[in-house]
């Protein structure tokens, strides 16, 4: 049988849709990707990478023809989901539609005329962010995870994360987020590197003692990954600067050790609806949780007010096992990466506690307080408060 006859045969077995029908669907779907749950069809581009990067139909996901059978069940588990496939001219997508039919997909269509017909109709298309060859190599162990793919890596590259503190927790968080390719990392810290920091603050080094911590962190990250832009905020957060500093970031990782900042950050993050990955460490123990404004509890749901200054713990510095902030910081970095990618189950409303001496993890539920002074009603006016400095546990 000639290919022309074969194709005719295939087209008689599959269903096609046209550009005008798809245009209406794409316009209706704008801003919300089809998920197969009644939100409209899932649009899949089956062309090769060099074609995809030149432009694609808005809302399409990319699974090259050669990987379609391998990846479709991960991406579209529901066999009855409505799927529209397209290629450049409608031939490869017709063959692909038949292949999905053989896999048990019951509602697959091929776009007649393909992307060429879409462009000929003068319809708008997206030009995706494309990784360079160096980036494809650097992040290969990420992009080969079906949960990430190139799209996930690009989310990381476009993301902005603010780290409060370039100390014990900020060190591993900063290094791992930089290695992962988080495109913009901000550090807030007004301290300088001291020899006694180096037992745990692994982003710094002996030859940078005396340097501002934000500058030292930027130097370490520049060596690790040139894709990462580091923003240095050499300051202390207070009510006058907190909103301005955090407003451009997608997520905040709190590695600070004082109550003033905790309360201030909590209230500011509620005003701007920024998620916060919170952690604290003490001697041999640490804990981590995620505060997502108005979805889980906030810091004040747990501790409505700071203790009066006289009741605060003493100012004597406590020791800390050097590896402890490594463990806890990497947990924070994990939550940050998951949050950016939108994968897995975040630590919202859950507190993970780690006991290094007994090598035990325990999880506690953190309920939201329906009477919380700041987060009980979204829209409630929140005043930022500069609490007087008082001591707390050491980092
Ligand atoms: Zn609250």
Question: Could you please describe the fold and organization of this structure?
Answer:
This protein has 395 residues and is an alpha/beta fold. It is built from 15 helices and 13 strands. The chain has helices at 3-13, 19-29, 49-52, 68-75, 91-102, 114-120, 133-138, 140-143, 149-158, 170-180, 213-224, 242-246, 259-272, 299-302, 324-341, and strands at 15-17, 42-45, 61-62, 83-86, 108-111, 160-164, 184-188, 229-233, 251-254, 276-282, 285-291, 350-355, 360-365. The strands form two sheets. An eight-stranded mixed sheet has the order 8-7-6-9-10-11-12-13, sandwiched between helices. It has a five-stranded parallel sheet with strand order 1-5-4-2-3. Helix 5 links the parallel strand 4 (83-86) and strand 5 (108-111). The chain binds zinc ion (ZN).
Outline:
It contains 15 helices and 13 strands. About 2% of the residues have low confidence. The site of zinc ion has 8 residues, from helix 14.
Layout of secondary structure:
Blueprint: H1 3-13, E1 15-17, H2 19-29, E2 42-45, H3 49-52, E3 61-62, H4 68-75, E4 83-86, H5 91-102, E5 108-111, H6 114-120, H7 133-138, H8 140-143, H9 149-158, E6 160-164, H10 170-180, E7 184-188, H11 213-224, E8 229-233, H12 242-246, E9 251-254, H13 259-272, E10 276-282, E11 285-291, H14 299-302, H15 324-341, E12 350-355, E13 360-365
Parallel strand pairs: 1-5, 2-3, 2-4, 4-5, 6-7, 6-9, 7-8, 9-10
Antiparallel strand pairs: 10-11, 11-12, 12-13
Helix pairs in contact: 1-5, 10-11, 10-15
């Amino acid at each position: 049988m000639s290919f022309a006859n074969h194709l005719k045969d295939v087209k008689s077995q599959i269903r096609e849709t046209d550009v005008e029908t798809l245009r209406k669907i794409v316009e209706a779907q704008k801003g919300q990707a089809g998920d197969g749950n009644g939100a409209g069809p899932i649009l899949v581009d089956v062309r090769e990478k060099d074609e995809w990067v030149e432009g694609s139909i808005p809302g399409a996901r990319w699974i090259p023809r050669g990987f379609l059978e391998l990846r479709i069940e991960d991406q579209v588990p529901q066999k009855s989901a409505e799927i529209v496939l397209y290629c450049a001219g409608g031939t490869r997508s017709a063959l692909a539609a038949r292949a999905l039919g053989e896999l048990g997909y019951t509602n697959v269509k091929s776009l007649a005329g393909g992307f060429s017909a879409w462009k000929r109709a003068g319809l708008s298309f997206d030009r995706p962010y494309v990784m360079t060859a160096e980036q494809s190599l650097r992040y290969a162990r990420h992009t080969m995870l079906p949960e990430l793919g190139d799209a996930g890596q690009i989310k990381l590259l476009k993301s902005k994360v603010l780290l409060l503190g370039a100390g014990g927790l900020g060190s591993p968080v900063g290094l791992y987020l930089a290695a992962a390719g988080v495109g913009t990392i901000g550090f807030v810290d007004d301290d300088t590197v001291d020899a006694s920091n180096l037992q745990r603050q692994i982003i710094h080094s002996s030859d940078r003692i005396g340097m501002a911590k934000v500058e030292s962190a930027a130097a370490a990250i520049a060596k690790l990954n040139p894709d990462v832009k580091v923003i240095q905020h050499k300051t202390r957060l207070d009510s006058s600067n907190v909103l301005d500093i955090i407003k451009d970031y997608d997520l905040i990782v709190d590695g600070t050790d004082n109550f003033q900042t905790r309360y201030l950050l909590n209230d500011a993050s509620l005003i701007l609806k920024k998620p916060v990955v919170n952690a604290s460490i003490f001697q041999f123990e640490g804990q981590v949780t995620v505060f997502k404004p108005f979805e889980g509890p906030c810091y004040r749901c747990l501790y409505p007010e700071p203790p009066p200054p006289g009741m605060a713990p003493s100012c004597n510095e406590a020791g800390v096992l050097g590896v402890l902030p490594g463990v806890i910081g990497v947990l924070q970095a994990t939550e940050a990466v998951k949050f950016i990618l939108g994968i897995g189950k975040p630590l919202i409303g859950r507190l993970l506690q780690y006991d290094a001496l007994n090598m035990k993890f325990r999880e506690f539920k953190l309920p939201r307080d329906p009477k919380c002074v700041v987060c009980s009603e979204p829209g409630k006016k929140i005043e930022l408060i500069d609490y007087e400095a008082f001591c707390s546990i050491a980092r």
